[in-house]
Write a structure and sequence with these properties.
Helix content: 40-55%
Oligomer: single chain
Number of domains: 2
Largest sheet: 7 strands, parallel
Radius of gyration: 18 Å
Structural class: alpha/beta
């Protein structure tokens, strides 16, 4: 390894689950590369979290940008952990989902994790091992109407996870996926607003309706997802690979 300090890479780091991930790994003593498009939000995160955070503005939908970011990270050292968290969704019926929409969702949700994994895993293996954690969705395990592109991307991410887990198991690189249900993020806020607009219900009623989709009747917090990822990066999870962890309040059953 080029550095003795534990290093983690988190994509989609500027808000929601990504922001919680950066803070959680920094608290665990990691130097954290925080990747997102919004440079201002990353700088704010660095000020809030401390010098352990290394902000890097990257559009993960741009292959050249992903490759350049991977090269810059490897020049600084070999990461111990990669969390592919960046994700987008399109909510629309099939006949209103454009090819461009589909390709953009796949680029962010599948191609970017593939590229980061391809560029960083060999260095991890050469350094003695590492952890890849993909942030999926319960939509990776079932169909959800009006989100065909999103569901397809998360199913693909699940397949990528399982394939890489088998390929790199003997090199001490574990690959797992975390599948959240509804999490208190901008995506959740947008869903509440959409429900209110289409049904006339208040956002409070929309919040309750979404929360009641799971057995616990509550929305998952970003910090809870981050805590699970910290566990999967720990020595205690050294033999866990190819696993899919639902964190959804029992929604998937």
């Amino acid at each position: 390894m080029k550095t003795s300090k534990k290093m983690a890479v988190v994509t989609g780091a500027s808000r929601g689950i990504g922001r919680a991930l950066v803070q959680a790994f920094a608290k665990e003593g990691y130097e954290v590369w925080a990747l997102a498009r919004a440079a201002d939000a990353l700088e704010s995160l660095q000020r809030e979290t401390g010098d352990a955070v290394r902000p890097l503005a990257v559009d993960v939908a741009d292959e050249a940008a992903v490759l350049a970011a991977s090269k810059r990270i490897l020049e600084a050292g070999t990461p111990r952990v990669l969390v592919n968290n960046a994700g987008i969704t399109v909510s629309a019926p099939l006949n209103k989902t454009t090819t461009q929409d589909f390709q953009k969702v796949m680029a962010v949700n599948v191609t970017a994790p593939f590229l980061f994994s391809r560029e960083l895993i060999p260095a991890m293996a050469a350094a003695g091992g590492g952890r890849i954690i993909n942030i999926g969705s319960i939509a990776a395990t079932r169909g959800v109407k009006y989100t065909s592109a999103y569901c397809a991307s998360k199913h693909a991410l699940l397949g990528l996870t399982k394939s890489l887990a088998v390929e790199w198991a003997r090199k001490n690189v574990t690959v797992n996926i975390v599948n959240p249900g509804w999490v208190e993020t901008d995506m959740f806020s947008n869903a509440k607003a959409a429900i209110s607009k289409t049904t006339g219900r208040s956002e409070q009623e929309a919040h309750a309706a979404l929360a009641n989709m799971n057995a616990m009747g509550r929305v998952i917090q970003p910090e809870e997802v981050a805590a699970l990822c910290v566990f999967l990066a720990s020595d205690a999870a050294a033999t866990i690979t190819g696993a899919a962890y639902n964190i959804d309040g029992g929604e998937a059953g």
